[in-house]
Amino acid sequence: MQDHAELKSQLRSRLRQSRDLMDASMHQQAMTKINAGVKRELERLRQAKSKVVNKPLVIFSYLSYGSEASTAFLFQEGWKHGDVMFAPKVLANPPRMELRRVTGEQDLEPGIWGIPEPKDSCEVLTPDDWPDIDLILVPGLGYDLHGGRIGYGGGYYDRFAEMLAATCVMTGKKPLMAAMVLPGQLQEEIPMDLLDLRIDLLITTEGILHIE
Predict the structure, then answer these.
(1) How far, in whole angstroms, is CA 188 from its chain's centroid?
(2) Percent helix, strand, coil in the chain (nearest 5)?
(3) Which of 30, 63, 85, 159 gets the highest tally of CB atoms within 10 A of its CB?
(4) How far is CA 36 from CA 13, 32, 42, 193, in A?
(5) DSSP H stretches of helix in 21-139
(6) 77 and 46 in contact (C-beta within 8 Å)?
(7) Cα–Cα distance between 162 and 170 in angstroms, integer?
(8) pLDDT > 90 in the chain, percent
């Protein structure tokens, strides 16, 4: 019987390899369809929010790197419509993420491992304000239809989600957790641990799947 951790590790390397090997034109075609879904979802959220409060959308998203589903379009759309955009800055001791506001390309620089991240001059969103986020875009290697996700193994987003959940309990507000799903990333079932975060919304090449 394979243990759970080994199972996850093998699934990670299989999914990473399959994503890295995806043909560039297939990746591009998939992103065109996914970005159309991103645009629709942002419009839906903006409309829903404007009925309640006259404030811009607050979005927190990873900055894509390598063969990941690209978030470039999401940031361009957000900036164009005046949404408030945050991106993660990874800190080492203890391992955690800071959410920093980015207002345009000029706020980004290559960080650890060459992954883009916000500059030190960017304003930080304190954990108390995390429940005010409307949409969170989470990176990952694979997803399933129950909201299961497998990330890269660092646990940054799981720890973030745990802190977020604790703050949300007090405010009664909860951001939508979403993921962009490239071909081959949707799995029958992702092995999940108790504290692994779950996704509410999958943006796929076929359309948007809301997970109940």
Answers:
(1) 20
(2) 40, 20, 40
(3) 85
(4) 29, 6, 10, 32
(5) 24-52, 72-80
(6) no
(7) 13
(8) 82
Residue 204 identity: T
pTM of the model: 0.95
- Whether the link from the prior residue into 183 is cis, omega within 30° of 0, is no
User: pLDDT digits over 39-72, tens only?
Assistant: 999 999 999 999 999 999 999 999 999 999 999 9
Structure-block tokens of residue 3: 């243990």
Please name the residue ranges forming H helices in 96-200. Answer: 156-171
Helix (H, G, I), strand (E, B), or coil: what is residue 69? coil
Judge contact between 115 and 123, C-beta under 8 A: no
Helix (H) or strand (E) holding 95, with range, is: none
Contact in structure between 182 and 19 (CB atoms under 8 Å): yes
| Cβ(137)–Cβ(60) below 8 Å | yes
